[in-house]
Amino acid sequence: DAGVIQSPRHEVTEMGQEVTLRCKPISGHNSLFWYRQTMMRGLELLIYFNNNVPIDDSGMPEDRFSAKMPNASFSTLKIQPSEPRDSAVYFCASSLSTSASGELFFGEGSRLTVL
Amino acid sequence: SQKIEQNSEALNIQEGKTATLTCNYTNYSPAYLQWYRQDPGRGPVFLLLIRENEKEKRKERLKVTFDTTLKQSLFHITASQPADSATYLCALAAGSARQLTFGSGTQLTVLP
Prior knowledge:
The structure holds two protein chains of two kinds. Chain A is an all-beta fold. Chain A contains no helices and eleven strands. In chain A, the strands form two sheets. In chain A, strands 2, 4, 5, 6, 9, 10 and 11 form a seven-stranded mixed beta sheet that branches. A four-stranded antiparallel beta sheet of chain A has the order 1-3-8-7, with no helix packed on it. Chain B is built from no helices and eleven strands. In chain B, the strands form two sheets. In chain B, strands 2, 4, 5, 9, 10 and 11 form a six-stranded mixed beta sheet that branches. Chain B has a five-stranded antiparallel beta sheet with strand order 1-3-8-7-6, with no helix packed on it. The interface between A and B is medium-sized, with 23 and 21 residues.
Protein backbone atom coordinates (compact mmCIF):
# COMPACT_ATOMS: atom_id res chain seq x y z
CA ASP A 1 0.00 0.00 0.00
CA ALA A 2 1.22 3.52 -0.76
CA GLY A 3 0.29 4.79 2.68
CA VAL A 4 -1.57 8.00 3.39
CA ILE A 5 -1.10 10.42 0.52
CA GLN A 6 -1.27 14.16 1.04
CA SER A 7 -1.08 16.99 -1.46
CA PRO A 8 0.36 19.46 -1.94
CA ARG A 9 3.56 18.82 0.03
CA HIS A 10 4.32 22.52 0.10
CA GLU A 11 2.09 25.51 -0.41
CA VAL A 12 3.00 29.18 -0.25
CA THR A 13 0.15 31.61 -0.51
CA GLU A 14 -0.77 35.15 0.33
CA MET A 15 -3.00 36.21 3.17
CA GLY A 16 -6.65 36.13 2.19
CA GLN A 17 -6.31 33.37 -0.38
CA GLU A 18 -8.16 30.08 -0.16
CA VAL A 19 -6.10 26.99 0.60
CA THR A 20 -7.23 23.42 0.00
CA LEU A 21 -5.27 20.48 1.36
CA ARG A 22 -6.03 16.96 0.20
CA CYS A 23 -5.71 13.54 1.72
CA LYS A 24 -6.13 9.98 0.49
CA PRO A 25 -6.25 7.55 3.42
CA ILE A 26 -5.04 3.98 3.37
CA SER A 27 -7.53 1.76 1.60
CA GLY A 28 -9.77 -0.02 4.10
CA HIS A 29 -9.18 2.44 6.92
CA ASN A 30 -12.41 3.95 8.19
CA SER A 31 -11.10 6.67 10.50
CA LEU A 32 -9.42 9.83 9.28
CA PHE A 33 -7.79 12.60 11.30
CA TRP A 34 -6.47 16.05 10.43
CA TYR A 35 -3.69 17.39 12.68
CA ARG A 36 -1.75 20.64 12.60
CA GLN A 37 1.85 20.86 13.85
CA THR A 38 3.69 24.02 14.88
CA MET A 39 6.75 24.58 17.01
CA MET A 40 4.72 26.46 19.59
CA ARG A 41 1.74 24.15 19.95
CA GLY A 42 2.99 20.77 18.75
CA LEU A 43 0.56 18.36 17.10
CA GLU A 44 -3.05 19.46 17.53
CA LEU A 45 -6.07 17.46 16.44
CA LEU A 46 -8.34 19.55 14.22
CA ILE A 47 -11.06 17.11 13.19
CA TYR A 48 -11.80 13.40 13.16
CA PHE A 49 -14.01 11.40 10.78
CA ASN A 50 -15.35 7.90 11.24
CA ASN A 51 -16.94 6.19 8.24
CA ASN A 52 -16.85 9.54 6.41
CA VAL A 53 -18.87 11.29 9.13
CA PRO A 54 -17.30 14.10 11.18
CA ILE A 55 -17.26 12.95 14.79
CA ASP A 56 -15.36 15.68 16.58
CA ASP A 57 -14.45 19.05 15.07
CA SER A 58 -13.84 20.82 18.36
CA GLY A 59 -10.21 21.38 17.39
CA MET A 60 -11.02 23.40 14.29
CA PRO A 61 -9.70 26.86 15.15
CA GLU A 62 -12.50 28.95 13.67
CA ASP A 63 -15.03 29.22 10.90
CA ARG A 64 -12.32 29.85 8.35
CA PHE A 65 -11.46 26.16 8.57
CA SER A 66 -13.66 23.46 7.08
CA ALA A 67 -13.14 19.78 6.32
CA LYS A 68 -15.03 17.31 4.20
CA MET A 69 -14.89 13.63 3.49
CA PRO A 70 -17.14 12.96 0.50
CA ASN A 71 -16.12 9.31 0.28
CA ALA A 72 -13.92 6.75 2.00
CA SER A 73 -10.89 7.53 -0.12
CA PHE A 74 -10.70 11.31 -0.05
CA SER A 75 -10.77 14.21 2.38
CA THR A 76 -10.10 17.93 2.12
CA LEU A 77 -9.19 20.60 4.62
CA LYS A 78 -9.98 24.10 3.44
CA ILE A 79 -8.90 27.43 4.89
CA GLN A 80 -10.70 30.50 3.60
CA PRO A 81 -9.48 33.17 3.98
CA SER A 82 -5.97 32.15 5.03
CA GLU A 83 -3.95 34.16 7.56
CA PRO A 84 -0.21 34.15 8.42
CA ARG A 85 -0.95 32.42 11.74
CA ASP A 86 -2.26 29.43 9.80
CA SER A 87 1.30 28.67 8.69
CA ALA A 88 2.05 25.14 9.90
CA VAL A 89 2.47 21.57 8.75
CA TYR A 90 -0.89 19.88 8.31
CA PHE A 91 -0.96 16.12 8.70
CA CYS A 92 -3.63 13.68 7.68
CA ALA A 93 -3.71 10.29 9.41
CA SER A 94 -5.89 7.24 9.00
CA SER A 95 -6.61 4.16 11.06
CA LEU A 96 -8.85 1.15 11.29
CA SER A 97 -11.33 1.80 14.10
CA THR A 98 -11.45 -1.88 14.97
CA SER A 99 -7.69 -2.10 15.28
CA ALA A 100 -6.57 -3.25 18.71
CA SER A 101 -3.64 -0.86 18.72
CA GLY A 102 -5.46 2.24 17.51
CA GLU A 103 -2.30 2.96 15.53
CA LEU A 104 -2.42 6.05 13.38
CA PHE A 105 -0.77 6.07 9.96
CA PHE A 106 0.36 9.56 9.06
CA GLY A 107 0.97 11.11 5.69
CA GLU A 108 4.08 13.14 5.00
CA GLY A 109 2.27 16.39 5.68
CA SER A 110 1.49 19.58 3.80
CA ARG A 111 3.69 22.51 4.77
CA LEU A 112 1.67 25.71 4.46
CA THR A 113 3.20 29.17 4.47
CA VAL A 114 0.87 32.14 4.43
CA LEU A 115 2.62 35.43 3.66
CA SER B 1 -7.08 21.21 32.36
CA GLN B 2 -5.64 18.16 30.63
CA LYS B 3 -1.93 18.26 30.03
CA ILE B 4 0.74 16.00 28.54
CA GLU B 5 4.35 16.90 29.24
CA GLN B 6 7.44 15.37 27.77
CA ASN B 7 10.24 16.72 29.83
CA SER B 8 13.49 17.77 28.24
CA GLU B 9 12.86 19.11 24.81
CA ALA B 10 16.22 17.72 23.75
CA LEU B 11 18.29 14.80 24.96
CA ASN B 12 21.84 13.98 23.86
CA ILE B 13 23.38 10.62 24.69
CA GLN B 14 26.40 8.62 23.66
CA GLU B 15 26.05 5.71 21.26
CA GLY B 16 25.58 2.42 23.07
CA LYS B 17 23.93 3.98 26.12
CA THR B 18 20.28 3.65 27.09
CA ALA B 19 18.06 6.62 26.28
CA THR B 20 15.16 7.24 28.65
CA LEU B 21 12.37 9.61 27.68
CA THR B 22 9.55 10.66 29.99
CA CYS B 23 5.89 11.39 29.37
CA ASN B 24 3.81 12.80 32.23
CA TYR B 25 0.12 13.57 32.10
CA THR B 26 -2.46 15.27 34.30
CA ASN B 27 -6.25 15.17 34.36
CA TYR B 28 -6.42 12.18 32.04
CA SER B 29 -7.58 8.63 32.55
CA PRO B 30 -6.00 7.15 29.46
CA ALA B 31 -7.19 3.86 28.07
CA TYR B 32 -3.82 3.49 26.40
CA LEU B 33 -0.68 5.36 25.57
CA GLN B 34 1.33 5.25 22.36
CA TRP B 35 4.81 6.29 21.36
CA TYR B 36 5.68 7.62 17.90
CA ARG B 37 8.91 8.55 16.17
CA GLN B 38 9.13 11.59 13.89
CA ASP B 39 12.03 12.34 11.58
CA PRO B 40 12.54 15.86 10.16
CA GLY B 41 10.13 16.61 7.35
CA ARG B 42 8.21 13.36 7.84
CA GLY B 43 5.02 12.29 9.54
CA PRO B 44 5.06 10.49 12.89
CA VAL B 45 5.47 6.71 12.79
CA PHE B 46 3.92 4.41 15.38
CA LEU B 47 6.32 2.47 17.61
CA LEU B 48 4.54 0.95 20.59
CA LEU B 49 1.25 0.89 22.46
CA ILE B 50 0.76 0.14 26.14
CA ARG B 51 -2.64 -0.24 27.80
CA GLU B 52 -3.69 1.04 31.21
CA ASN B 53 -3.60 -2.46 32.70
CA GLU B 54 -0.08 -3.18 31.42
CA LYS B 55 3.06 -2.26 33.30
CA GLU B 56 5.64 -2.84 30.60
CA LYS B 57 5.93 -3.55 26.88
CA ARG B 58 8.99 -4.47 24.84
CA LYS B 59 9.83 -4.49 21.16
CA GLU B 60 13.37 -5.26 20.13
CA ARG B 61 15.54 -2.51 21.71
CA LEU B 62 12.50 -0.52 22.85
CA LYS B 63 10.80 -0.73 26.24
CA VAL B 64 7.83 1.24 27.50
CA THR B 65 6.51 1.39 31.04
CA PHE B 66 3.21 2.82 32.19
CA ASP B 67 2.48 3.84 35.77
CA THR B 68 -1.10 5.07 36.14
CA THR B 69 -0.49 5.99 39.78
CA LEU B 70 2.40 8.29 38.93
CA LYS B 71 0.64 9.25 35.66
CA GLN B 72 3.84 8.62 33.79
CA SER B 73 5.24 6.58 30.94
CA LEU B 74 8.93 5.94 30.38
CA PHE B 75 10.33 5.08 26.94
CA HIS B 76 13.70 3.37 26.81
CA ILE B 77 15.98 2.69 23.85
CA THR B 78 18.77 0.32 24.79
CA ALA B 79 22.10 0.11 22.94
CA SER B 80 21.24 3.38 21.23
CA GLN B 81 22.55 4.11 17.73
CA PRO B 82 22.93 7.35 15.76
CA ALA B 83 20.05 6.11 13.57
CA ASP B 84 17.79 6.39 16.63
CA SER B 85 18.18 10.18 16.50
CA ALA B 86 14.70 11.63 15.99
CA THR B 87 11.86 13.30 17.86
CA TYR B 88 9.80 10.94 19.99
CA LEU B 89 6.18 11.74 20.77
CA CYS B 90 3.88 10.21 23.35
CA ALA B 91 0.14 10.20 22.73
CA LEU B 92 -2.83 9.41 24.95
CA ALA B 93 -6.28 8.09 24.13
CA ALA B 94 -8.84 8.56 26.87
CA GLY B 95 -11.92 6.39 27.35
CA SER B 96 -13.54 5.04 24.24
CA ALA B 97 -12.40 7.97 22.12
CA ARG B 98 -10.14 7.11 19.22
CA GLN B 99 -8.67 10.59 19.18
CA LEU B 100 -5.06 10.80 20.26
CA THR B 101 -3.66 13.81 22.06
CA PHE B 102 0.08 14.23 21.56
CA GLY B 103 2.83 15.55 23.77
CA SER B 104 5.24 18.13 22.40
CA GLY B 105 7.97 15.57 21.83
CA THR B 106 11.56 15.03 22.90
CA GLN B 107 14.33 15.43 20.34
CA LEU B 108 16.87 12.66 20.87
CA THR B 109 20.38 12.88 19.45
CA VAL B 110 22.65 9.84 19.72
CA LEU B 111 26.26 10.88 19.36
CA PRO B 112 28.71 8.50 17.67
